[in-house]
Structure formats: C-alpha cells, structure tokens
Design a protein that fits this description.
Blueprint: H1 2-11, E1 29-44, E2 49-61, E3 77-81, E4 90-92, E5 103-104, E6 108-112, E7 116-128, E8 140-149, E9 157-161, H2 166-169, E10 178-189, E11 196-206, H3 209-226, H4 237-260, H5 270-297, H6 306-318, H7 333-343, H8 350-412
Parallel strand pairs: 1-9
Antiparallel strand pairs: 1-2, 2-7, 3-6, 4-8, 5-7, 6-7, 8-11, 10-11
C-alpha cells in the first residue's frame, strides 16, 4: 500500500492537468476516442432532440506518468480519479444546448507504468436529430453524433476512432420503444480546416407492435365502416344517425391519434392525413344528406330548371341513374272531358253545373299539386343518390391511392 501511494506521489508531483502531454513541440499526441451507446433516454420528434447516455472511451499515452515497477513491488498499473489527469477536450458539435450542458459522471482511470492511460466516462448527451414520421409507426430515424477537438488542432492532437471489444459493442440495450438498427462511424474534416470530425450515425427502428394494435387497426376499421354511409338510402333517417355516429367516432379517433402520433416539425404523418380526409368525406356526405331531406320535405318549393334536368340526365348515365327530362304539363285531358260533359248537360240546373265544375277543378288542381310534389321528391332522392355514388367513388379512389402510397413507402424504407 505504501508503494501504491508512493507511485501516486511520484507521478503527480508537479503534474499540470491543463498541459497536453506532448514529448516535444514538433509531434502530436495520438488519442483514441470511441463511444458506446448504452441507452436512448428520449427521442423528441417535435423538438427534434435525442437524449442518449454514452460511454466515452479515451486511450492515450502520457509520458509524465511513468515509473519502474521493480522499484514499487512490481506494481504495473494504478487507478485514479479522472479529475487528476489531463483529459482530451472533445466536444459534441451538434449539441442541442450549450457545449457545457453535457452531463458528466465521476469515474476512474487506469494508468499503466508505461504512461498508457485509458478510461471510460458516462455522459448524458442532448443532440439535434432530423426526424421524419411520415410513415408512422413504420419509421426509421437516423441521428448523428459528431465529435471534434475544441481547443487542439491536428498539430497538437491526432484524434482517431479507436477499436471496441465485442462486449462493448453489445452493451446497448433496447429502451424507449426503439431498436438499434445500424451503428456506423465516419471520420472527416471541417471545411477548409484540418480539424477532424468523428461522426457516429445511429439508425433507430420503432417498435410498431403497440401502435399496430392500438392505432393502425382501429383506424382502418373505422375508415372501412365509414364507407357504409354512401350505401344507405338518401331518404332514410338512419343515414343521418349513422353519419353523426361515425363523425363522432372519427373525432374521438383524432384525439387518440394526436396523443399517440409524434408531432413532427418537418412532415405530417400519413395516418393523420388519412383520418382527416375520411372525416371530411363523412362530413360532406352527412351535410348533403341533411340538405336533401330538407328539399324532399319541401319539394314543392324547389323546382329544378329544365337545363339542369338535361345535365342530370347525361351525367347520371355515368353512375347508372336515369333522370326524366320530359316537361310536365298541367293539362289533364280526362278532367277536360268531364268538364265538357257537365257543361253540355241541359237537364240540370246551371248553378248546380257550375258548382260541380268548381268541385271537380279543385280536386284536379289538388291532385296535380300532389303529383308534382311527389315527382320533385323523387328527383331530389335521385340527386342525393348521385352525390353519394360520386362521394363513394372518390372515397374508394382515395383509399386505394393512400394504401398504395403507404405500402410502397414502407417497403422502400429501411424499416424492412
């Protein structure tokens, strides 16, 4: 124990932690640097920040920390606090906060009798990360951790990526709903500078199973059930009841999506767009169903012009709906004949003839009004059916396009 303390007293006597351990001014100090990601604390899609706990591994040789093991009971290595040593000033360039916001934890360093120093220090990094949640929940996010010397150039310190053991490579454990998909390292230089940049590219794949059962499957089922509103007869009150029910269901599903789907600052997730489009189609069909019922109940007040009948006739043929384009005449020949028979009857009193003619004329006008109102109601029913079929066609095309786009994007993404 005395020899152990004697070694520390010898090597740290007059030791300056701010002075880089270069043997001479013409050489640079070789420093091995590497990181081991142990856990991802949080990946914020809205603020595009990645919080991760990493072990920073340093290895270098300090010529001031040498001793002869034979003089100290053959002790070849000692352990000391990192604060007692010179440390390479390596900083995270893409830090989401200030450079001094990195949280460091106390650790120990191993010093060999040859001056070889190695230590690993855990740190909590908050880095920027460009995210893309367009194909949520089948998204893969790629984040970079870029490190570089802050005070020293290549003339003073040669920073390179060190090797890791197999146990260190498998130290990461999956947490926070993400799986480590790929981990690559790069070395480059700053623009118009010889300062090196060591970059780690991290690809994270989302665990989609919880979202598949709680978000994706219910959204698909709700969208499928919503399509049934286009096949309910326009004059039925069940159409409005069903439409209001599905509209409220979609609004509740939108609230669930807002809580589960990440708020990305760059793109809007496709599943959010689908829910918004389905809600809009249901709202449009529900609105026209309400208006159609209003027109049907008061059909006598809403007469369609003849040119609109022509348009509906030719446009309805596309959707297999036939409209009547014949002009309605108010003349009733059978009634005219009856009036003529009454007027030519001479046996009855003239006043009684006039009274019978007025009664027959009133009954005829009432009947014609009822017939016209029935015809107008049927026309509005056909128009409502035509609108439903147009909306159904748009809905089917929209769902087909969205499904094709979603599946094609997911298959082309790094997720599979």
């Amino acid at each position: 124990m005395k020899d152990y303390s004697a070694i520390k007293t010898k090597i740290f006597e007059g030791y300056d932690t701010d002075l880089i351990p270069k043997p001479d001014l013409n050489t640079s100090l070789d420093v091995s640097f590497n990181i081991v990601v142990s856990e991802f604390v949080d990946l914020s899609m809205g603020s595009e920040k990645l919080e991760s706990i990493c072990w920073t591994k340093y290895r270098f040789r300090d010529f001031r920390l040498k001793w002869n093991p034979g003089n100290y009971s053959n002790i070849k290595s000692i352990v000391t606090d990192v604060e007692n040593l010179w440390k390479p000033d390596v900083r995270l360039l893409n830090s989401a906060g200030a450079l001094n916001d990195e949280v460091e934890f106390d650790t120990k360093a191993e010093v060999r009798y040859t001056g070889y120093v190695k230590f690993g220090q855990p740190r909590l990094y908050t880095s920027t990360c460009k995210t893309n949640a367009y194909i949520f929940p089948f998204d893969v996010q790629t984040c970079n951790l870029s490190f570089s010397p802050w005070r020293y150039s290549t003339k003073d310190m040669h920073l390179y990526i060190g090797k890791l053991s197999e146990s260190e490579k498998s130290y990461f454990f999956n947490a926070g709903g993400w799986i480590l998909e790929r981990f690559k390292t790069y070395r480059r230089h700053r623009h118009a500078s010889d300062v090196p940049i060591l970059q780690w590219s991290i690809s994270l794949k989302r665990l989609f199973t919880p979202y598949l059962l709680n978000i994706l499957v219910p959204t698909i089922l709700i969208a499928s059930l919503s399509s049934l509103i286009f096949f309910i007869p326009a004059g039925s009150s069940d159409k409005i009841d069903f439409g209001i029910t599905m509209f409220l269901t979609l609004c509740v599903n939108a609230l669930v999506l807002s809580e589960a789907v990440p708020a990305s600052s760059s793109v809007t997730p496709l599943i959010t767009k689908v829910n918004c489009a389905v809600t809009s189609m249901i709202a449009a069909s529900l609105l026209f169903a309400i208006l159609s019922n209003r027109f049907i109940q008061s059909a006598k007040d809403y007469f369609l012009p003849y040119w609109f009948h022509l348009f509906l006739y030719y446009f309805g043929l596309i959707f297999f709906i036939k409209f009547d384009i014949s002009k309605n005449t108010k003349m009733n020949t059978s009634v005219a004949c009856q009036l003529n028979d009454i007027s030519t009857t001479v046996e009855t009193d003239p006043l009684e003839n006039i009274l019978q003619e007025l009664k027959l004329l009133n009954a005829t006008l009432t009947k014609d009004s009822e017939v016209d109102e029935t015809i107008q109601s049927l026309e509005w029913l056909k128009i409502s059916t035509l609108v439903d079929r147009i909306c159904a066609l748009i809905y089917i095309l929209m769902c087909t396009f969205v499904a094709y786009t979603f599946i094609n994007t997911v298959l082309e993404s790094p997720f599979f």
